[in-house]
């Protein structure tokens, strides 16, 4: 069995930041939130926004396409940041799609899963958590142990919604394919493995792979599930300044 979950200095720092107390549940809170309007997106990393009657440049915390979300005039929430050591003053956090508020922060799903893990509703007696844990040629989002279980987890954020159905991915992901295949290898070596889709919105019907955008990812997800990788989805309560996990969501394969 491959039993050396190698932890780099960055992962150790992140583990310290996340916290070592395994029984505390907290809500993810954003400070200094302001309302704004989306104008345009010159590239994957920045957006032009209108805030307080002025046009400003905003950092987009999600490099996905998000074309169905970032439409001209869309109401958004941004976080005002200390701009002394960065190029932009604002981070784009969430956007309204009609009446539905969707969190767009690509760093949020890992934090949400971590809080879910600490809550103990799905995994009891968690003894140790390592974020960004290296396994062979991949770095999985989490490795953790309970009294008698050793588990790898890959977390994926979901922002794509169509008629109440949420899908992943919103663009082809070769990196995602690699993670799926190596999660299946974990099973063969005695570990448990999970893919957890964090749905960055609430009140959805179900989750399904986005076969139209990346058929191979969808088919591989089904295949590794048959081989023992657990596939779960979890929705979130989204407000202008917070994000909290809510309920498990059904996974459909059609």
Task: Explain this structure.
This protein is an alpha+beta fold. The protein has 2 domains: 9-26 and 107-249, Trna Endonuclease, Chain: A, domain 1 (3-Layer(aba) Sandwich); 31-102, OB fold (Dihydrolipoamide Acetyltransferase, E2P), CATH 2.40.50. It is built from 4 helices and 16 strands. The relative contact order is 0.15.
Overall pLDDT score: 89
Q: What does the overall shape look like?
A: globular
Structural class of the helices, strands and pairings? Answer: alpha+beta
* Broad CATH class of the largest domain: Alpha Beta
Secondary structure elements and pairings:
Blueprint: H1 9-18, E1 28-29, E2 33-40, E3 46-51, E4 54-60, E5 75-80, E6 90-97, E7 100-103, H2 108-119, E8 128-135, E9 138-145, E10 150-158, E11 160-162, E12 165-168, H3 174-188, E13 192-199, E14 206-209, H4 215-226, E15 230-238, E16 242-249
Parallel strand pairs: 4-6, 10-13, 12-14, 13-15
Antiparallel strand pairs: 1-16, 2-3, 2-5, 3-4, 5-6, 6-7, 8-9, 9-10, 11-12, 15-16
Helix pairs in contact: 3-4
List the defining traits of the structure above.
seven-stranded mixed β-sheet, alpha+beta, 40% strand, 254 residues, 4 helices
Summarize the structure.
With 254 residues, the chain is an alpha+beta fold. It is built from four helices and 16 strands.
